[in-house]
Amino acid sequence: MLVLGIDIGGSGIKGAPVDTESGTLTAERLRVPTPRPSAPEGVAEAVRQIRAHFGWDGPVGVTFPGVVRDGVVRTAANVDRSWVGVDAAELFGAAAVLNDADAAGIAEMAFGEGRGRAGTVLVLTFGTGIGSALFADGTLVPNTELGHLQLHGGDAEHRAAARVREEHDLSWEKWAQRVEEYLRHVEMLFSPSLIVVGGGVSRKADKFLPYVRLDTPVVPAALRNQAGIIGAALAAARG
């Protein structure tokens, strides 16, 4: 089944058609900048632009960086606050809409590092913030938003997101220390059998994961920055 997957991020919105049987993109992805401000109508126009680019009139799955229940946005930490309460499924034209990290996790569990893994698997995406997808024996526990766990009196993502490394010009080793501190916290809370590190920074995993030492195995995401697109498409295909 072919489905258009669209991944809304804090800095960019990416989309491509996906073969949901193989988990592969069938065309080169299109990326457009996330509008400033990232209010609903501006983002909806970017989504329409991606649909038009591919001439798409079939099923669409869209990720959103916040809590989404029944297609309605409930939180908006890294985008404009006016999103809260918006029916995103309707705004995007009867699309399937879900949390961005949940989408990445769905893709990793279907086609990546989580495939066939039993027990508790935690997929974490490091980017503008920290997203999370928690799976128990392959079943998603949606909207966990573990980037907002408290560390040092504030949200963990304000200390350990990939954006923080860039903004504070941290070395990979220094940033890895912050990542390890955060991962130890979630390890203590959930005792996962596997932690998968995703987001754009996962393609540079060799620069920081060697410095991260946990009892739990920690691996880079196999699908890297395509996971959100693929997971959005899978969510739409599954209904």
TrEMBL record:
The UniProt family comment states: Belongs to the ROK (NagC/XylR) family.
Species whose genome carries this gene: Nonomuraea pusilla
Q: Which domain of life is it from?
A: Bacteria
Please report the name of this protein according to its UniProt entry: Polyphosphate glucokinase
User: Which keywords fit this entry according to its UniProt record?
Assistant: Kinase, Transferase
- Cite a single GO MF annotation: kinase activity
PANTHER family (alphabetical): POLYPHOSPHATE GLUCOKINASE, ROK (REPRESSOR, ORF, KINASE) FAMILY
